[in-house]
């Protein structure tokens, strides 16, 4: 912001200097005045136009357009975000791409690592003891007779689960179950609610400051070029 203010001040100061020089110079007085006044009018007009974007000027219709229309700015920001970036189609395409590139949407390894195989084996033993084979096992030592089976059972279960989650059938079932389109709709709705919440926190002053920070430095060149073009027209007018 400071850079654009300096451009404006320097341009207007140069124009005023040329005007004063026109009143004091013994030669080309009228030409210098013409250059100075045209440059000053071009620069000051553009500076006022930039100022009117952000500030309300009494009796000048259309001034302060950015803070006065901040609701429209917020709506435009939301529309841009939701219609160009966070559409259901874009999110769905992203999820499907991740599925294709990654082989699967979810990494099942942490889930497999968290399986309590001891608890599964204990459940198996309990089921057997409560079944018609329980009586027979009691005659053979009861639950202790099944202890030697624990390690091979656990290893076999681990391998079986690993093969299952890596199978194409399981991946297809998981993909259908997750439903990229449904996930896309849910994420889009949640993203929209977050954007609405953040935009509701904006005030006219914040919107004005945001836009100023983005474009005012570049708009400062309008003042410079207004002065330069105005001065050039003044030169043509002075020598004609």
Number of helices: 12
The computed structural class is mainly alpha
Main pleated sheet = none
The SSE order reads: HHHHHHHHHHHH
Rg, Cα atoms, Å = 38 Å
Mean pLDDT: 76
Distance between the termini: 39 Å
Shape: rod-shaped
The counted number of beta strands is 0
The helicity comes to: over 70%
- pLDDT below 50 for ≥5 consecutive residues: which ranges? none
Structure description:
This protein has 240 residues and is mainly alpha-helical. The protein has a domain of 105 residues.
Please tag this protein with its features:
mainly alpha, rod-shaped, 240 residues, 0% strand, 12 helices
Quick synopsis:
The chain has 240 residues and is an all-alpha fold. The chain has twelve helices and no strands.
Could you outline the blueprint of secondary structure elements for this entry?
Layout: H1 2-24, H2 29-54, H3 65-68, H4 70-85, H5 88-102, H6 109-113, H7 117-129, H8 134-139, H9 150-165, H10 168-178, H11 180-200, H12 204-239
Helix pairs in contact: 1-2, 1-12, 2-12, 4-11, 5-11
């Amino acid at each position: 912001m400071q850079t654009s203010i300096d451009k404006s001040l320097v341009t207007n100061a140069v124009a005023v200097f040329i005007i004063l020089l026109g009143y004091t110079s013994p030669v080309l007085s009228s030409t210098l005045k013409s250059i100075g006044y045209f440059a000053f009018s071009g620069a000051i007009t553009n500076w006022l136009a930039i100022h009117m974007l952000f500030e309300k000027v009494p009796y000048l219709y259309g001034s302060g357009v950015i803070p006065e229309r901040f609701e429209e700015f917020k709506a435009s920001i939301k529309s841009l975000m939701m219609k160009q970036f966070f559409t259901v189609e874009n999110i769905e395409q992203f999820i499907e791409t991740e599925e294709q590139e990654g082989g699967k949407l979810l990494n099942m390894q942490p889930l497999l690592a968290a399986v309590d195989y001891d608890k599964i084996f204990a459940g198996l033993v309990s089921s057997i003891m409560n079944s018609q084979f329980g009586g027979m096992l009691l005659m053979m030592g009861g639950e202790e007779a099944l202890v030697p089976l624990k390690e091979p059972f656990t290893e076999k279960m681990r391998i079986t689960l690993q093969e299952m989650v890596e199978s194409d059938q399981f991946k297809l079932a998981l993909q259908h179950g997750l439903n990229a389109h449904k996930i896309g709709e849910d994420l889009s709705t949640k993203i929209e609610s977050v954007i609405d919440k953040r935009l509701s926190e904006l005030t006219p002053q914040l919107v004005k400051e945001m836009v100023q920070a983005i474009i005012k430095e570049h708009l400062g060149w309008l003042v410079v070029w207004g002065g330069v073009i105005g001065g050039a027209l003044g030169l043509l007018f002075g020598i004609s």
